[in-house]
């Protein structure tokens, strides 16, 4: 019997998540772990251009992996024939890998996993295992969706998120810079977090988001940035619905990031480990150092995009 009476907790919001009938897990890296366990994968091929969280989870659980390169359009450079228990891990960088391209790679290689961390609104393709991360797109402390037809027949705990909300609530009522340490501490917790189902708190928040407004705002902001920056962008980009960010490839991305931070414009490096672990003349190093993932999400409007473009052009001229 649950408790009756007393003070109020968080209300149950409208239950309208964007994805239904997917497996709801606590993190993207654990969604991969779920797949490796359920499909009994012995070896996985991963790109050099990738967050070290994937490598960490594979090392932690003693799974074999090998790296491969990408080309300048973010496609895998991979010609090996996969063994029966091997999979190719494909990252949909900035939503640049279309479902048609994914199907081609599936036909070519047979066993693939698609990481849609950068493309939350790109619907999954039947028979292709697909991972989505929620906190890359929304104000939630954790959460991931997994589209697969291979179930892990093991009882999992439901995660708890109540102690991971300080940076989100703090930024809502204050400044991001005041809670950045909380954000980093929360991020570090995922290195030790075990495979669990999505928390009730995160699930509740995700059910109440106006997803159509999110898509429309992201699209409008992206199109504005594209219209002002396309001529100086060294990338030829495909448009993706509800874009993660506008990736601007410039020659001196590291210095531009530092100078923008001085103006309280924070552009992340995706990913610092790639710069640390790859040769300077590699495409992976150059993309990690020089692609600026400009924010175009639902927190902002055209006014902020105008300011961002103005500051950028002042630094680039």
Helix content: 25-40%
Number of helices: 11
Give the number of domains.
2
Determine the mean pLDDT: 95
The share of residues in extended strands comes to 5-15%
Strand line-up across the major sheet: 1-8-7-6-5-2-3-4
Our measurement of the CA-to-CA distance between the termini, rounded to an integer number of angstroms, reads 66 Å
Please, what is the CATH homologous superfamily of the largest domain?
A: Type I PLP-dependent aspartate aminotransferase-like (Major domain)
**CATH domain class name of the largest domain:** Alpha Beta
The CATH architecture of the largest domain can be given as: 3-Layer(aba) Sandwich
**Structure class:** alpha/beta
Unreliable spans are none
Q: Indicate the CATH topology of the largest domain.
A: Aspartate Aminotransferase, domain 2
| CA-atom Rg in angstroms | 20 Å
Total number of β-strand segments?
A: 10
Q: Globular, elongated, flat, extended or rod-shaped: what is the shape? A: globular
**SSE string:** EHEHEEEHEEEHHHHEHHHEH
Largest sheet: 8 strands, mixed
């Amino acid at each position: 019997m649950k408790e009756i009476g007393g003070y109020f907790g968080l209300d149950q919001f409208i239950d309208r998540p964007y994805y239904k009938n997917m497996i709801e897990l606590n993190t993207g890296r654990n969604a991969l772990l779920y797949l490796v366990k359920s499909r009994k994968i012995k070896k996985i091929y991963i790109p050099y251009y990738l967050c070290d969280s994937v490598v960490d989870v594979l090392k932690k659980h003693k799974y074999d992996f090998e790296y491969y390169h990408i080309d300048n359009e973010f496609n895998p450079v991979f010609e090996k024939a996969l063994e029966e228990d091997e999979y190719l891990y494909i990252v949909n960088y900035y939503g640049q890998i279309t479902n048609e391209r994914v199907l081609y790679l599936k036909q070519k290689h047979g066993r693939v996993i698609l990481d849609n961390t950068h493309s939350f609104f790109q619907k999954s393709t039947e028979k292709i295992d697909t991972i989505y991360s929620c906190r890359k797109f929304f104000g939630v402390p954790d959460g991931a969706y997994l589209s697969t037809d291979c179930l892990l027949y093991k009882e999992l705990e439901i995660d708890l998120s109540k102690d991971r909300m300080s940076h989100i609530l703090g930024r809502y009522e204050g400044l991001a810079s005041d809670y950045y340490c909380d954000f980093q501490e929360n991020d570090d917790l995922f290195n030790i977090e075990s495979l669990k189902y999505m928390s009730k708190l995160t699930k509740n928040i995700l059910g109440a988001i106006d997803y159509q407004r999110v898509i429309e705002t992201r699209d409008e902001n992206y199109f504005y940035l594209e219209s002002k920056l396309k001529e100086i962008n060294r990338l030829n980009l495909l448009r993706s619905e509800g874009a993660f960010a506008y990736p601007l490839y410039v020659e001196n991305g590291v210095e531009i990031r530092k100078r923008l931070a001085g103006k309280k414009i924070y552009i992340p490096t995706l990913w610092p480990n790639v710069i640390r672990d790859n040769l300077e003349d590699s495409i992976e190093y150059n993309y990690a150092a020089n692609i600026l993932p400009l924010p175009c999400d639902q927190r902002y409007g055209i006014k902020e995009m105008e300011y961002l473009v103005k500051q950028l052009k002042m630094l680039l001229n």
